[in-house]
Amino acid sequence: IWLDVEAEGTPGKFTDALAYAAQRHAVQPIPAPHVTVIYGVDHIGEEAVRRRFRSLEASLSQLREGRNDTVMWPPLASKGVLSDIELEGVDGGTMTMAWSEVSLQSSELQERLVDHVWDVMMCGGSDEGGEDYTTTTTCPTRPTPWLPHLSLCYDNPEGTPLSLVDALDVVAKHPFLLGGGDGGGGERQGHDQDQEGRRSSARKQLRLTGLSLWNTEGFMDEWRCVDRIAFPR
To answer: 34 and which of 2, 198, 202, 223 could share a cystine (Cβ 3.0–4.6 Å)?
Structure first.
């Protein structure tokens, strides 16, 4: 389950940034700019997954109304840049990959929303032969805390060209990824630096446009979007 950062059918500056990152590193571009909410929903059939996913539109709307909010999923604040590798079975790793990212800040509300998506998708009960997690003790525990990030590139870890230096170059060419303007420029210096810093902090928010369900079996060029929920503007 991904959080979308661009409206469906309207690729924009985030798509351009990912294309530049892929070209910079000579790797395949990520299919769509996104923030992963959860992954590994493979214990039930695709039609059951679709039904559970569609139910999120109503339940997330109810949660929004319950907290008297204007947005379905609050924006995420950027906090830095990271380039790293993970090896399955090493230090708790669940997959083998290298990646570069813009790291984002979670919050208590964000964690509750991820909990809700996890409960619906992973613990929603038996469906089309899936395991009935609601009547057993086998419902998997969600990994915490949530570590939201906007991935810039994926690669295999062995001999990968991905590096923090190159990830920083991507952000320098696309400063909006860390809340800057569309074209460079540093923060203002002088007596009004604190006020400018507050403005900068306020705009370091990644607005989310929707939720999407992806089938990520096979190679990255075989990944496909199965369904989408657009958030109200």
So the answer is: 2
Cβ-proximal residues to 180 (8 Å cutoff; 6+ apart), any chain:
200
Report cis status (omega within 30 of 0) of the bond before 145: yes
Reference 147, options 71, 37, 18, 73; nearest CA is: 37
pTM over 0.70: yes
H or E element, residue 52: helix 46-66
**pLDDT, tens digit, for every residue of 177-229?**
987 665 433 333 333 434 444 444 444 688 999 999 999 998 999 999 999 99
Who contacts 132 (Cβ-Cβ below 8 Å, separation ≥6)? 125, 126
Distance CA 5, CA 183 (A): 20
Residues in contact with 149: Cβ distance below 8 Å, sequence separation at least 6, in sequence order: 35, 36, 82, 101, 102, 103, 104
Two structure tokens written together for 229:
């929920």
- Whether 225 and 213 have beta carbons less than 8 Å apart is answered as yes
Residue 135 has pLDDT above 70, yes or no: no
Could you tell me what percent of the chain has a pLDDT over 90?
62
Amino acid (1-letter code) at residue 87:
L
**Are 98 and 152 a contacting pair, CB within 8 Å?**
no
Distances (CA, A) of 52 to 40, 69, 210, 222: 14, 23, 16, 23
H helices of 142-232, in order, are 164-173, 193-203
Give the C-alpha separation, 175 to 89, whole Å: 35
Q: What is the mean pLDDT of residues 113-125?
A: 89
